[in-house]
From TrEMBL, chain A:
GO terms for molecular function: NADH dehydrogenase (ubiquinone) activity; NADH dehydrogenase activity; ubiquinone binding. Belongs to the complex I subunit 4 family. This is NADH-quinone oxidoreductase subunit M. The keyword Transmembrane applies. It comes from Actinacidiphila bryophytorum. The gene is nuoM. Its main location: membrane. NCBIfam families: NDH_I_M, PRK05846.1-4. Residues 141-450 form the NADH:quinone oxidoreductase/Mrp antiporter transmembrane domain. It is found in: Endomembrane system; Membrane. One of its GO terms (biological process) is ATP synthesis coupled electron transport. The chain crosses the membrane at residues 6-26, 33-53, 82-103, 123-139, 145-167, 188-209, 242-263, 275-299, 305-327, 334-353, 365-383, 403-426, 438-460, 480-499. PANTHER family: NADH-UBIQUINONE OXIDOREDUCTASE CHAIN 4.
TrEMBL record, chain B:
NDH-1 is composed of 14 different subunits. Subunits NuoA, H, J, K, L, M, N constitute the membrane sector of the complex. It is found in: Cell membrane; Endomembrane system; Membrane. NDH-1 shuttles electrons from NADH, via FMN and iron-sulfur (Fe-S) centers, to quinones in the respiratory chain. The immediate electron acceptor for the enzyme in this species is believed to be a menaquinone. Couples the redox reaction to proton translocation (for every two electrons transferred, four hydrogen ions are translocated across the cytoplasmic membrane), and thus conserves the redox energy in a proton gradient. It comes from Actinacidiphila bryophytorum. This is NADH-quinone oxidoreductase subunit N. The gene is nuoN.
Length: 531, 548
């Protein structure tokens, strides 16, 4: 038996979570380093998986397959295609930065609880590792049910991260902050749980269909795909549509897609910046990833059937998210609405069903993860220094903290997809891919870029330029730990902006596989078509 | 004239009953029930003859031994194949020994065994006049607030009668799902109900509420028993027999006609009304809407250890009986009862979940949640497939241990007035006692059906069975009410972890090994059935065939 690389990649953070949680209450620093160490080890394994993955090889590689709960048809099947292996790498890459950025976020306050068993710091880092393990497993699962389990289960640690470790900078004081925080956490959980339970009905439906037609119920992606290819499995059109809707609903809540997005600004606004990054850059990616892996592959016909509506919703997300971002007064909520807009782009790219669109969307997931992490984490440093999230409380920061302002600008420029930075490539690909099939949608989506320039530059102008406001004078510039977080992210943005080939090379073959599942070919270029 | 001829002047000799059957009882196969009832009877003797100070130890040991021995007997029976190949009907057609019966009896025995630990806990309540006391009234017969009660408390009396009562209840519950004729069913129902009525009235704190709960339970229970009995009479009128297989063969039309009952036999009105009434009696015990009204009041008023036992074991027994009735007696008329049961299941799921949202008391909240869960189980019952049976068996096993554990945690959170069950008192519990709050959170997540807990495995099993049985709408209602239910489970978690503790909030009592064991068993079962349920699913699968 070969080395179970994928299992290990997920098991390392899971074990790390347990070890971290077990560190005695007084030794907070030990707990932090333990967690960081485990996250770095995860990164190593994820990197090995990335290297061992052969883009031109089998569709699913590094596979592992074991029976888990036979009666439910549940198998522990892992495997990665190009898209999944990149997403795993992205997750493993971002977690150490999230931890470093949140190094002091969970330190107990001075008047901390006297109970010796109360260990917020240990809990914070253990929960992050737990989320990482579950996210990695949901990227790796090739069994629909296995995926569902981790997709649902990750809500619980995430919920505690949002509700338990909120942003201390709140206009309404500590009590109001606690109220808002618990509201945000509950909203997050209820939205996602409801989505997940609808999906559960669809998962059961899938089991019934396969049990009916194949004799035994199965959730294995490969088995279902090959049965479908050989004609043994023929899902009725209306059934397929219902099942698709059940799955898509859950992913659209998670992603999030307008009009199911309203939990995201609350959750990102009330949680600490690193947790906000965890939500938008890591956890939400499972939603868009699952659309690619499960919606399109399991229900190709229904995906084509629903695509027009989904594209319009994605378009609304792009414009609506960007418009609301322009109007925000709170830095974190602004970034949250910007993310809604960006998720619109990703979903647009996926359901345009062109190869540029889908590889653009995959690349977008990676780039959005990195750029939002950079912007949000720097914003977090800024907010911690001032003790406020309101844009109006800032001004002239670039005079007192130039490095902070500079990194904030680069993060912002990446968010508005400035050419030369990574998100430009992906946004361009998505737009080109959309345009070649749906020109009108492509044109309207371009508006999103214009609005992005508006909200990012206005944000920068109001917070960083102008006279130095009261409360800003003594602001310190980025410290070594913070630079350690920001510099690699920015370097990566620059690198992938100039040379995205390493990622696209891995992703593209998988995108072609997915497209061939939905029997879609790229439309001919417009000029050629006229001949 | 000889004596005999004189005698014959005013009497006639009855014809000699040529084939009067001598009762033939398979003692070995009934041994679990006999052991438990025997231990219960012994418990009564202990109560009568042992000095007061040594009763507690003797009763706890006797009850635990009895249940353990009965469980060993179940395992031995199952091992000999009585669950599968040798399944048959024992005791002159009165009791079935088959897979579902053994599985459910095993579950009830384990639940009872764990419940003993919570019953026997004596470290939670502060010492009364230097004596360790448990959750039960010092003297059941003493009027609350009277001098007699004060004297009993001062003397350090405890109600050790609860252990024999528990054993009688368990004995009745063992027969209930195995009952193979309607009279045995009724007798079993009363055997386990009467001790429960008494147990409900025996709380040490809030005695008036506890007595009120008992009266409510008793009155409504008596009503439902009356319905059940009336239904039995009508069914007898229909079929001329009370045995399950007899009734089902009359329904099939394969039974020979009894000339004495020719007028009524085969009258469908009798059948349908009788059935509805019998089902009503069972649905009452299950706590299904619209027969659920007693649940919140009784759950709240009864001593919490009793509530935990009742909520789990009664449900197991009653669902077992319902399953047997629907699958053995009525398979031929699926289409008559299915629509009604659909309605009941949908109402139960939705009403339980929706009403629970507004609850402010932990015990009432758990009561309504148990109603919602009864609805989920009913969805599996309705499936009418072998998968339906085994999924219900599995769900019952999973659910009962979560329930026991959850109520055991409720006994720990206390203030000066005893248990602090109002939800607002639980605010900030997670900061004060992270461990207790975390354990309770695990139970709540299992109730909510979050993956990797037993609640999820159970829910998935029944919903899949229902979907395969063609009840997809039920599954959809099920997931919607799960989402509603998730809201109030999560609300409790929010309250425990994200609210500031109140300065005068309740303390978490440090339990003895007893309650700790009960809670630990609950957590262990929740996790094992959530992570690696295959062995138990196999067991339920194998046990999923009724004998007829």
């Amino acid at each position: 038996m070969s080395f179970p690389l994928l299992t290990v990649t997920a098991a390392v953070p899971a074990v790390g979570a347990v070890v971290t949680a077990a560190v005695p209450a007084a030794q907070r620093t030990t707990a932090k380093y333990t967690a960081l160490l485990f996250s770095l080890a995860t990164l190593v394994f994820a990197a090995v998986a990335l290297v061992r993955f052969d883009p031109d090889g089998d569709r699913y590689q590094l596979t592992e397959s074991h029976a888990w709960i036979k009666d439910f048809g549940l198998r522990y099947d892992l495997g990665v295609d190009g898209i999944a292996v990149v997403m795993v790498a992205l997750t493993a890459l971002l977690i150490p930065f999230v931890m470093l950025a949140g190094w002091h976020d969970a330190d107990p306050l001075e008047d901390a609880n006297p109970n010796r068993r109360w260990r917020p710091t240990q809990g914070f880092f253990a929960l992050i590792l737990l989320v990482e393990a579950m996210v990695v497993l949901s990227f790796e699962a090739t069994d629909v049910f296995l995926f569902y389990i981790f997709f649902e289960a990750m809500l619980i640690p995430m919920y505690f991260l949002i509700g338990g470790f909120g942003d201390r900078a709140h206009a309404g004081g500590e009590e109001e902050a606690a109220r808002q925080r618990s509201y945000a956490a509950v909203k997050f959980l209820l939205y996602n749980l409801a989505g997940g339970l609808i999906m559960l009905a669809a998962v059961i439906g899938l089991y019934v269909v396969t049990a009916h037609q194949l004799g035994t119920g199965t959730f294995s992606l490969q088995e279902i795909l090959s049965a479908r290819a050989s004609g043994k499995l023929d899902i009725e059109t209306s059934t397929e549509r219902w099942l698709f809707l059940g799955f898509f609903f859950a992913f659209a809540v998670k992603a999030p897609l307008w009009p199911l997005h309203t939990w995201l600004p609350n959750a990102m606004g009330e949680s600490t910046a690193p947790v906000a990054v965890l939500i938008t850059a890591v956890v939400d990616k499972v939603g868009t990833f699952a659309m690619l892996r499960f919606c399109l592959q399991l229900f190709p016909e229904a995906s084509k059937w629903a695509a027009p509506v989904i594209l319009v919703l994605a378009l609304i997300s792009i414009i609506y998210g960007a418009l609301l971002a322009v109007g925000q007064r709170d830095i974190k909520r602004l970034i949250a609405y910007a993310s809604v807009s960006h998720f619109g782009f990703i979903i647009l790219g996926i359901f345009a069903m062109t190869s540029q669109g889908q590889s653009g969307a995959t690349l977008y997931m990676v780039n959005h993860g990195i750029s939002t992490a950079a912007l949000m984490l720097v914003a977090g440093f800024l907010i911690t220094r001032r003790g406020s999230r309101l844009i109006a409380d800032f001004g002239g920061v670039q005079k007192v903290a130039p490095i902070l302002a500079g990194t904030f600008l680069i993060g912002g420029l990446a968010t508005l997809s400035l050419p030369g930075l990574a998100p430009f490539v992906s946004e361009f690909l998505v737009l080109v891919g959309t345009f070649s099939r749906y020109p009108v949608l492509g044109i309207i989506a371009t508006l999103g870029i214009v609005l992005a320039a508006l909200y990012v530059l206005v944000l920068y102008q109001r917070t960083m330029t102008g006279p130095v406001k009261a409360g800003i004078e003594g602001m310190t510039d980025l410290k070594a730990r913070e630079l350690l977080v920001v510099t690699p992210l920015i370097a990566l943005l620059l690198f992938l902006g100039v040379y995205p080939k390493p990622v696209t090379d891995i992703v593209n073959p998988s995108v072609h596989h997915t497209l061939s599942d939905v029997h879609k070919t790229d439309p001919k270029p417009a000029l050629e078509a006229k001949k | 004239m000889s004596a005999s001829s004189v005698h014959s002047l005013w009497t006639t000799a009855a014809p000699v009953a040529d084939k009067f059957p001598t009762p033939h009882i398979e003692y070995a196969q009934l041994s679990p029930v006999l052991i438990v009832l025997g231990a219960a009877a012994l418990g009564v003797l202990v109560e009568a003859f042992l000095p007061r100070r040594s009763r507690y130890t003797a009763q706890v040991a006797l009850a635990a031994l009895g249940l353990a021995a009965a469980f060993a007997a179940i395992v031995a029976l199952a091992d000999k194949g009585y669950g599968t190949t040798k399944a048959h009907i024992a005791a002159m057609g009165a009791v079935a020994v088959d897979g579902p019966a053994l599985f459910l009896q095993g579950t009830i025995l384990l639940v009872g065994f764990v419940a003993i630990f919570t019953f026997a806990e004596r470290r939670l309540d502060p010492r009364a006049h230097g004596n360790q006391v448990d959750s039960f009234a010092a003297q059941g017969s003493a009027v609350p607030g009277s001098d007699q009660e004060k004297a009993a408390v001062r003397a350090g009396f405890t109600s050790t009668e609860v252990f024999p009562l528990l054993m009688f209840a368990v004995g009745g519950m063992l027969i209930f799902p195995a009952a193979n004729d309607l009279l045995t069913l009724f007798v079993a129902l009363e055997v386990f109900s009467l001790p429960l009525y008494i147990l409900c009235a025996l709380a040490r704190r809030n005695r008036l509420m506890s007595q009120e709960a008992a009266v409510k339970y008793f009155l409504l229970g008596a009503f439902s028993s009356a319905f059940l009995l009336f239904g039995i009479a009508l069914l007898y009128g229909y079929a001329g027999t009370v045995s399950y297989s007899g009734i089902s063969s009359v329904i099939d039309g394969t039974a020979p006609m009894n000339p004495a009952l020719a007028d009524t036999t085969g009258n469908d009105a009798l059948l349908l009304i009788g059935l509805a009434m019998v089902a009503m009696g069972l649905l009452f015990k299950v706590g299904a809407v619209p027969f659920h009204m007693w649940t919140p009041d009784v759950y709240q008023g009864a001593p919490t250890p009793v509530t935990g036992f009742m909520a789990s074991a009664t449900k197991v027994a009653a669902f077992g009986a319902l399953l047997r009735l629907l699958y053995v007696v009525l398979p031929g008329m699926r289409w008559d009862w299915r629509p009604v049961m659909w309605g009941v299941a949908i109402l139960t799921m939705l009403a339980g979940a929706v009403i629970a949202v507004t609850q402010t008391d932990v015990k009432r909240l758990l009561a309504y949640s148990s109603i919602a869960h009864a609805g989920f189980i009913l969805a599996g019952v309705i499936a009418t497939t072998p998968d339906g049976i085994s999924s219900v068996l599995f769900y019952l096993a999973a659910y009962s241990f979560v329930t026991l554990g959850a109520f055991a945690v409720v006994t720990l959170v206390r203030d000066a007035g005893g248990e602090a069950t109002h939800l607002s008192r639980w605010a900030g519990l997670g900061r004060r006692s992270p461990l207790v709050a975390a354990v309770f959170a695990v139970f709540l997540l299992a109730f909510a059906g979050i993956p990797l807990t037993s609640g999820f495995a159970g829910k998935f099993a029944v919903f899949t069975a229902a979907a395969q049985g063609g009840a997809m709408p039920l599954v959809i209602v099920g997931v919607i009410s799960s989402a509603i239910a998730a809201f109030f489970y999560i609300r409790v978690i929010v309250l425990m972890f994200f609210s500031e503790p109140k300065p005068d909030g309740p303390t978490v009592a440090v339990p003895s090994l007893m309650t700790s064991t009960a809670i630990a068993v609950g957590v262990a079962v929740t996790l094992v059935l959530g992570l690696a349920p295959q062995y138990f699913l196999d067991l339920a699968d194998k046990a999923g065939i009724f004998v007829r």
